[in-house]
Sequence to fold (100 residues):
Amino acid sequence: MTEPASFEEAFRRLEDAVHRLEAGGMPLEDAIDLYDQATVLALRCKALLDNADLRIKQLHERFADVPPLSAPPLFDDEPPPTEMPGLFDRLGAPQPPGGR
Fold:
């Protein structure tokens, strides 16, 4: 069995193996071999998810000190924001009219 490159492919193969095992009707040795393959696929899925989780945490840490931007109002009855904290300071630009 070749190792799948993507999470989606590994998960698809794992689901297929689980369905085949649940259906039963195969010789014991074949079921054990399929169970072994499913275990390898489950470990591959876990490794890919762990790697994705690490990448998301690293991105979060990289941008954790960037202040959020204020958004313009979504509805006409909302007052417009009076300031956009951090944005103009970081850009070195003057505040817009009505800003701090």
Q: What stands out?
A: DSSP finds three helices and no strands in the chain. The chain has a mean pLDDT of 81.
